[in-house]
Sequence to fold (112 residues):
Amino acid sequence: MLPALALLFTSAFGITAMAFGSPAPDAPMAVFGPPWWKADRMVGLVAEAGGRMVDTGGLPNVMIVRRAPEGERGADEPDDLAAALYRAGAWLVLDAPALRGCLALASGRKGV
Fold:
């Protein structure tokens, strides 16, 4: 029974990740760090990657980030923010608009 459950959860996670796909370059992104990371460590990850924080998620290891708009982008900001976030230590980067309601439910807030 355990192998079947492991396959079920792995498949569900894979399908969810594929459904949200890799985020558009200028779209908000939900960044997931290791579960034991606190908010200050996640802020450091976002800063190291050159992203801009938009909001926090319902958990301390979840942040909503985005790139700066075209005219406001600094020379040190990456063209591929998702790749930079992975290099900085993110475990998962997903398209945030579809997740914002779920992340708000986890924190007890209304949609962001």
User: Anything to note?
Assistant: The first helix runs from residue 2 to 20. The CA atoms of residues 59 and 107 lie 7 Å apart. The chain is about 40% helix and 15% strand. The first strand starts at residue 29 and ends at 32.
